Amino acid sequence: MRLVRYDEITEKEYKDYKRELLQSSEMISPSVAIRGNSTFDETVAQWEAETKRETCPDGWVPATMFFLVDDNGRILGGIHFRHELNDFLKHFGGHIGYGVRPSERRKGYATHMLKLMMDIAREKGYERVLITCKDDNIGSAKTIENNGGKAYTTSTHEGKLFRQYWVEL
Q1: Is the Cβ–Cβ distance between 127 and 100 less than 8 Å?
Q2: How many C-beta atoms surround the C-beta of residue 45 within 10 A?
Q3: Measuring CA to CA, which residue among 82, 71, 72, 67 is closest to residue 18?
Q4: In the chain, count of helices (H) and strands (E)?
Q5: Rounded CA separation 80/74 (Å)
Q6: Is the dihedral of CA 1, 31, 48, 126 positive or negative?
Q7: What would the mean pLDDT of 55-66 be, rounded to a whole number?
Q8: Fewest C-beta in 10 Å: which of 1, 3, 44, 112?
Q9: Which of 9, 13, 29 is closest to 21 using CA atoms?
Q10: How high is the pLDDT of residue 111?
């Protein structure tokens, strides 16, 4: 398994991943993994635009979309790395948002994907990253804690409690 950037996945594998996520009744995480009815090329172009401040949508911070793929290129999960934090992300999103496709959950992929993402963040010079999750998302909390996350506070957004973790790199 390896972590690859958005521009290293195939359209075929992305369509399969997107189909499975859309068939699920669950919230898609990271939310930017799916772009509604956009074509594959339009989606890749949006992810590319988001990597630079000057082409980022208003109110967004520069970010890079990555995917965990197996040895055959099958997408197992997505992870979104935000290069900086704005006020909203300081409480409810953090530097990293991630999710594993429903058919591949409970296999340790989230923990592995997050470890690989933190290796990249370390290489880019980050000393620590903020990661948040809903208070009732025990799987995500364990994933963050298994990667060294230390809970430091909680916040409430739209009636939901969020845990905030710092991970020292």
Answers
A1: no
A2: 14
A3: 67
A4: 5, 7
A5: 18
A6: negative
A7: 96
A8: 1
A9: 29
A10: 97
Q: Which two tokens stand for residue 148?
A: 């060294």
Beta bridge partners of 66: 5, 79
* Count of C-beta atoms within a 10 Å radius of residue 15: 12
Using H for helix, E for strand and C for coil, what is the string for 48-91?
Answer: HHCCCHHHCCCCCCCEEEEEEECCCCCEEEEEEEECCCCHHHHH
Whether the pLDDT of residue 83 is over 90: the answer is yes
Task: Return the closest-CA partner of residue 33 out of 127, 90, 116, 100.
Answer: 100
pLDDT tens digits, residue range 87-118? 999 988 999 999 999 999 999 999 999 999 99
Confirm if 60 and 67 have CB atoms less than 8 A apart. no
pLDDT at 40: 97
The residue length of the chain stands at 169
